[in-house]
Amino acid sequence: MSLRRFILKRLLLTVPILFGVSVITFALVHLTPGDPISQMVAENPNVSQAEEAQLRAQYGLDGTLWEQYATWIGNVLSGDFGDVYGSSQSVAGVLISRLPETIALGLFGWVFALVIAIPTGVYAAINKDKFGDTASRIIALSGISIPNFWLGLMLILVGALWLGWWDVGAPRTAVYHPEMLWFLILPGITVGTAAAASIMRVMRTSMAEELNKEYVVAARAKGLPERKIILKHVLRNSMISVVTLAAMLTASIVAGSVVVETVFNWPGLGRELVQAIHGHEINLIMAITLFTGFFIVLANLLADILYAVLDPRIRYD
Amino acid sequence: MSLLEVNDLTVKFYTEEGVVNAVDNLSFSIDRGEKFGVVGESGAGKSVTALSVMRLIESPGHIESGEVLFNGENLLEMSDEEIRSIRGNEIAMVFQDAQTALNPVYTVGEQISETIRHHLGYDETEAKERSIQLLDTVGIPDAESRFSDYPHEFSGGMQQRAIIAMALSCDPDLLICDEPTTALDVTIETKILQEIETLADEFDTAIQLITHDLGVVADVCDRVMVMYAGKPVEKAPVEELYYDPKHPYTVGLMSSIPRIGDERERLQTIPGTMPDLVDLPSGCSFHPRCPYAEESCTRSEPALVDPETGAVATDDDEHVAACLEYTGELTDGLGYEVTVRDSSDDAEVETVAGAKASSAVDTDVPDAGGDRRD
Ligand code: SF4
């Protein structure tokens, strides 16, 4: 199968996946007690019964769950994600304005994770069972075990309160502003640490395994320098399992950013999602969830393509 | 001066089970252009010997002592840099299983070219040209397009040919072939062996052929060393080894050569297994399996001697063996007889059951005699 057909097939596959995601999220959101209208009514006791019913109708919140879902999905398919209740903003507008912040955070977390994990993993594999390996394993284990909200708070404590190098919360500027990029370091490290730790461990294991293979002896027998053997022959083979893991970790980075954005008051989609859940902003919750799902599917697709690029034995099918 | 001279090589592996005496005090030499066979069952120390020559023994293994003189220079004392300039360049290796020796994620062509670029300093295009030419030489059809194939797109035989091309790429003086055909089926085996032989002549390369199969040795080699439990037990020119084996282990190995088209009971192997290299039997390591073992065999360790005189082997001795028989320490002697029979057009050697043991054996000696040594 050609690469193009493979990508096309996988993209088509996202449709049923996103449909499933939307159904489940929709059901969960509606099954939680309370809805935006009751919240408005509670805040303003002067609203009459008739007005409440009219509000419900206006936001498509009357009728059965299935009817509501049908209305919602119909709108989404025609490109309308609805409005944020009680404000004039459209959901799509919020999404677009918050997206750069979230992408910046995720990318930084990713780059941080890879930059830390790959060299450390390689180093640990080469020096297997020596001091450096043991030390890096202990650090990795802590990295996996530490909850990210705690790590975030510690970074704020040290970086902002003790050292005074950063502000306590994200500055209110555009994302590409130097101040904002500087602040990005803290939440970026927080969101990337757990991923760095797991990637490092997989890197170490798979590299150590590859180092025992006969093609390594064969490469040595050819007289190639050790550095070249590691960086050219062994690394590429070890990366194959890392890519698979990295794709799976995308989901955890996304999930992690929800907490981290809240801790650092980072103005991204994750923080928006938490606020949306508090405010029963159904349209917003649905849109962010769908978007996240799409992104994760895309990351996996990317990983599969990369996987086939790294390993010529893999066929697209 | 010999091309390769290994003196008193001892290699140990420090494992959790104990110290493995993989190679013990081993000496041999290979002349320029010579085809030298190393034979023994697995665990005899053949591969360790080969890897030691290239100084590729990895932890927990360690070369304890000895020297490996290549063109008179001790490889074991060279810097890492120096030994690397010899590996793949002057001494090259053909591995047992080509499939695992090739890196699955790079093209076959790239894996050949990189050696050429590294040692000979060729640029990308020159190296590619030479690689294609080599692939063609080793008999890969359509070499030009096969150059950019990945290893998994090659058949087993073709992979092994590619490995041979890779090994020959820098015109080595010595080609170490570690069981080069074990992973292949019989029809391809013969072809590959012939290929190795012709190419070695063409490239004027000496061969150290490691195998468990005496039949393979007979096809290819000039001289043979038989190893058992890390030690050499017999060294001889190939036809002498076949017509006049001196060590009971060699005789045992001959009886286990399978031969197609022979109705008699043939596939008789030496009873028992290779001893534990951590805890070698006392005296002659072969005594637990030797049909002629006597009490003295458990006590004294036989030295390599000239079987005619019983004098300790020197470099000038063509045929040497390590059995107490030749130093007069056995009371009953060795109970096998060697008879040369002629059947069809093959000369055959029959070792007939002797006084103490029954090992009815006959051996294929392909054209080990006259016509190959002209
Ligand atoms: S020394 Fe004894 S045990 Fe060893 S090969 Fe000779 S007869 Fe057999």
What does this structure look like?
With 317 residues, chain A is mainly α. Helices cover 78% and strands 0% of the residues of chain A. Chain A folds into two domains: 17-77, no CATH class; 102-310, Orthogonal Bundle (MetI-like fold), CATH 1.10.3720.10. In chain A, helix 5 packs across helix 8 (178-211) and helix 10 runs antiparallel to helix 12 (282-310). The longest helix of chain A has 39 residues, at 226-264. In chain A, 34% of the residues are buried. In chain B, strands 6-7-8-3-9-10-11 form a seven-stranded mixed β-sheet, sandwiched between helices. A four-stranded antiparallel β-sheet of chain B has the order 2-1-4-5, with helices on one face. In chain B, strand 9 and strand 10 form a beta hairpin. In chain B, helix 4 packs parallel to helix 7 (156-168) and helix 5 (124-137) crosses helix 7 (156-168). Chain B is elongated and about 70 Å long. The longest helix of chain B is centred in the middle third of the chain and has 17 residues, at 186-202. Among the domains of chain B are: 100-171, no CATH class; 248-365, no CATH class. Mean pLDDT of chain B is 84; it is low at 260-267 and 342-374. Chain A binds chain B through residues 213-215, 217-225, 233, 236-237, 240, 310-313, and chain B through 51, 54, 56, 58, 84-89, 92-93, 95, 97, 100-106, 114-115, 118-119, 150, 152, 163, 166. The structure holds iron/sulfur cluster. Residues 248, 284, 286-287, 290, 292-293, 297, 302, 323-325, 330 of chain B line the site of iron/sulfur cluster. Chain A: Residues 99-307 form the ABC transmembrane type-1 domain. Chain A: It is found in: Cell membrane.
Attribute tags:
heterodimer; A: about 325 residues; mainly alpha; MetI-like fold; globular; B: about 375 residues; alpha/beta; seven-stranded mixed beta sheet; four-stranded antiparallel beta sheet; 11 helices; 14 strands; disordered C terminus; binds iron/sulfur cluster
